[in-house]
Amino acid sequence: MKAESTNRSEPLKQTGAAKPGVRPIADEPNIDGKPVYTVETRILNPDSLFREKGLCDGPTFSPGSACVYSCRYCYVEAMMNRGGSAVSDTLEKTGTRFQDVVIRRNQPMERLRAELRDTRGQLRYKEDTGTVYASPAVDVAATVELARETTDLCLEILESTGWTIRLLSKSPLLKQIAAAIPARWKRRVIYSLSTGTLDEALAKAIEPDAPLPAKRLETLKELQQEGFRTFAMLCPILPQDPVVYAKEAAERIDFDACEHVWAEVLNRRGASMQRTAQALEEAGLTQWAQRLHRVFGKGSTPAWEAYGRDTFNALADVVPAGKLRFLQYVTRASRGFWTAQEERGAILLGKATKRAKKSTSQKSPPNAKRSAAGKKAWKTIHRNRAKSATVPPPSRKSDLARGGL
């Protein structure tokens, strides 16, 4: 696949003077006009809340903290930009906004190797057969260089653990990652292209710098035709006629070839809905903006709940039995309804679920083992950070060319 160059010769622009704790990548160009910074942050989270979404069995990994893409509905900032965090410090010290920068994590390979091992250098997860998910924070294949970085991280995980890897991206470069995985590990990686909207004009408004849905769907189909394991990700689904949307999704995505189908309506975390509505208005998509305004803001909870239920029911009618994984944040008032829908594929999220937190001794043996290993891993991660930080950075010249658009 031939990649187009994007601002390859433009030098890194900083909005603030260099300050301790923030490392601009001075020898690399901006990515689509975004300055690139690195932070000293772990790569592996051995016990992530993404387990509750069914996307993994606890572990996740991420080579970055702020994405190349600037999707208007993204809620990662609310998750990452907290007081005292590396992301918060970076934004404060550089005077930049989250959506205007790319934040990568320093020496990802060295850190990951250390985090997968204990203090004696022994592999922690070699016998663990759970699933690890990437990425909870950034797109894993937004550029050629980032796709290569993800490939290297995946190869290390496949060699050093027993995990199956679940990868999600909006980029057709995901196929390059699949091509680089040795045949002996082909069945240990599951791929998906995120396609919450199938409308090209809508995608241009709310996902302005991401590949269009048609290209993503084409890549997903190619992966399936080549025998790779895949899942579908319909997220976020904006307010619209849910029956029409579900029918089109079933026509354009081979759900039978997908192991599972995750779906979610637009998340109300952070300012995601306000930014999305503004983008729709600026693009002249007035009806889309009006429908969205009805489901957020004061007094909108009943409308948002109806939006979720209608979307769920429409998808449950077209997704093969046992495959739907519909993510829904519930309230105490709505919990009863959604609990009754778990057999049809509803996954309840949020504080109102009031799920009993079982102790390690109460968990099933595999989960107990992962939880205990996760707690031990944190201690090792902190011990090894200083050690990994002394390793010289890789010398390979980065190729941050975009591809597949």
> What strand line-up does the widest sheet have?
2-3-7-6
If you compute it from the alpha carbons, what radius of gyration comes out, rounded to the nearest whole angstrom?
Answer: 21 Å
Structural class call reads alpha/beta
Total count of strands? 16
Count of DSSP helices?
A: 13
Major sheet: size, sense and barrel closure? 4 strands, mixed
Short note summarizing the structure:
With about 400 residues, this protein is α/β, with parallel strands linked by helices. It has helices spanning about 75-80, 85-95, 110-115, 145-160, 175-180, 200-205, 215-225, 240-250, 270-280, 285-295, 300-315, 335-340, 365-390; strands spanning about 5, 25, 35-40, 45, 60, 65, 100-105, 130-135, 165-170, 190-195, 230, 230-235, 260-265, 325-330, 345-350, 400-405. It has a domain at about 195-355.
Show the helix and strand layout.
Blueprint lengths: L2 E2 L18 E2 L11 E4 L4 E2 L14 E2 L2 E3 L9 H5 L5 H9 L7 E4 L2 H8 L15 E4 L9 H17 L3 E6 L4 H7 L8 E5 L6 H7 L6 H13 L3 E2 L1 E6 L4 H11 L8 E5 L6 H11 L3 H8 L7 H16 L7 E6 L5 H6 L5 E4 L15 H25 L12 E2 L2
Parallel strand pairs: 3-7, 8-9, 9-10, 10-11, 12-13, 13-14, 14-15
Antiparallel strand pairs: 1-16, 2-3, 4-5, 6-7
